[in-house]
Amino acid sequence: xxxxxxxxxxxxxxxxxxxxxxxxxxxxxxxxxxxxxxxxxxxxxxxxxxxxxxxxxxxxxxxxxxxxxxxxxxxxxxxxxxxxxxxxxxxxxxxxxxxxxxxxxxxxxxxxxxxxxxxxxxxxxxxxxxxxxxxxxxxxxxxxxxxxxxxxxxxxxxxxxxxxxxxxxxxxxxxxxxxxxxxxxxxxxxxxxxxxxxxxxxxxxxxxxxxxxxxxxxxxxxxxxxxxxxxxxxxx
Length: 236
Hints:
Blueprint: H1 9-20, E1 25-29, H2 37-49, E2 55-60, H3 87-90, E3 93-95, E4 98-102, H4 109-112, H5 115-128, E5 131-136, H6 149-153, E6 158-164, H7 170-182, E7 188-193, H8 200-211, H9 216-228
Parallel strand pairs: 1-5, 1-6, 2-4, 2-5, 6-7
Antiparallel strand pairs: 3-4
Helix pairs in contact: 8-9
């Protein structure tokens, strides 16, 4: 998992969105997965905890739960918990700089679908934590165990939707936006990930090859200049 450094401008822009609406319950999701939504959730959790805030990350991603390979400080034996009793407060465990609940240890999943039970649980958690972050399943991937979107959006102030350039199509994005409207999502912001795009240097060279095909000397000179700029060939 790639964590965004706390001082990156990208995180500052996200925090402007969070602070502008005094968002305390924030959901993170992607259309189809593997675009960086979980990494973004963990990065935001670390950034918030760095301000001495009490942060709880609730992993609700049934398709790809957070594992010890991604967060090495996850205990080998996580305690079971439920939204239906105080165990969701008592059994949240400290992982690195924030508290963590994993869906792999959630019991009584059917109970979650009761709006009053879930709403009361989040109300109690908000008394103990300054921020609650939800890592969601990909919105376009459906299975019987997925957490109901309308329930989640009934308590969240903001959804950060992570889309990947080069992977997320306009058609997929339109489908996701339709899903969000049906689930009564109050507010969402789109975060653009470039993880599936080649480095800038490669794209510049491709452009030079196309534009200066009939000027080989100039083409080779420009490519040589680009190749000297090693920072263009490394992702940020």
